[in-house]
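Instructor's aside before we start: the two examples that follow are unrelated to each other. I chose them only because their records fit on one page, so don't look for a connection. First example below.
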Amino acid sequence: MDTTINDRLKVEKEEKKSAVVFAGGGSKGAYQAGAMKALDELGERFEIAAGTSIGSINAAFYVQGDFDAAYEMWNTLTVDDIMTNGVNLDRSLESVISQREQLLPFVKTMVNKRGADVRPFHEKLKQFFNAEKFFSSPVDFALVTVRYPSFTPVEIHKKDMVRFGDDAWQWLAASGACFPVFPVMHIEDGDYVDGGYFDNIPVAPAFRLGATDAVVIDLKTEKNHAGYLHHPRIKYIKPSRDLGAFLNFGKEALRFSIKLGYDDTMKAYGKYYGREYTFLPGPHAEQALEWLSDKFMDILTEAEARFDFSGSVRFQRVNNLEGCTTLLASSLGVYRPTERELLLEALECFLRVCGYTNDVDYNLTELTSMLKSEVDRLYPMLEYDFATAFDTVCGFITAHGGKAPERKKQEDDRMLLIYTSLIRALQQMPLI
């Protein structure tokens, strides 16, 4: 009997393998613990896990199914669990000065041992690496390390680690040996250092293991793998805010990273809204977003067409000017954003300029209702001319502790048009 195309498609769908790929980045790996928690709650499952450096350790946690253990480790980890006489390096001079008593022993160890004393880190790896769970898991695994001193890349798969049994954790240590801060890792007849010297996000190894699609969890705000940015089979999750230094194991820094990883993953799957701000869905949030997006774009499009830019721009053709939506799209980093994305970015810009913190989560329904009640006090904003409206918006921003944009500057005029259009849309929004 001939196989139909529908039969074939069904078989191929069943044969597909998904991979989760973890980037390297030292203490910033706490972000991936939050992402793993979100993926688990979302019911996402992967047949392959790959990682480099700290990413290889988080990938091993995934293979073992130890999501709670990973979350616990990152919530309780300290610099003393990583190195003897260690110091947290968060890029600030004040931080270094506050740890001056630990700094000299740390430097002495670095010199004497040609790298930090990372025996505590290795003990931690032994504690959390479970050979029985790892090798019996149906999830396949790959990591990248680099042979020293030739800096030749080495790709290690789960099958290559089997013969090492309980000592297979050494390959995780090799992938994470961020030389010269950490010493080289000696395994059998070879020396190895951090895989980030070759490939900090091992997407290709995951595909070589048979993956047909992948979720990548990066640790930098700029995407590491430009070649995969537009790949239709890759979901790319990256920090919406800077995670700081790669050797800062302070509790606040780790907890910030964990929460951000959770929130950013929820946003990537459409469960939360926002970019640098986090908007939680509330009752009727979808309806409010749909209505506000449409009304905001109606008002902005009309306002931009009517606004006279000749006062702020001289000796420049109008068709060379950047539009309001172009400014928002550039801020988003999206070539052709949706109306909803433009509205949310305008809302973030407005909250930022008014001084609202992005360190807390906002219920979207409650936030828009609160803002509506605030801007309704500006009535009759809808009837104002542009000059009066701009002055009113600037007064509103200043009253909330923010710094109002300067008038008669090309970009600032466009931002004021955006804020004015947002306020006018909020004023017309029906009660939720």
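Example two begins here.
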Amino acid sequence: MSRPATETPLPKDTKVLSIGLHSSALDYSRMPDGLDEATLTARMEAGVAALHEAGFDVVSCLVGTSSDGAEATVRELLQEHTFGLATIGGGVRMLPEHTLLFERLINVLTEAVPGIRLGFNTTPGDTVDALRRWLQG
């Protein structure tokens, strides 16, 4: 998937905040067969490792389902680092019960870091592609 033509790519060394649900926060009874906490944790860890191996400067931020707790965690990281891009994982974005959490995170990011770019993956395994859409070669 290509980058929208209206956006200028960010420098490759842009610090990225990668937000996702902690694997312990999900209800696995609603997930596809074979997906359990251990499997998802391994996929998430492999995804973060792939980002680092691809040369991206990524800070991982795993949150629970509490909007207040997630906001506090993100705000703390925003005080510690300067981010130009944030990704929010599918566990937050794609499950209807997390809509308010997703809204809260988007609003915190855009309020605290005006101009921050947002990228979205579909699985932990395609986060590299999401970053490549917004960061220079």
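The two ends are 14 Å apart (CA to CA).
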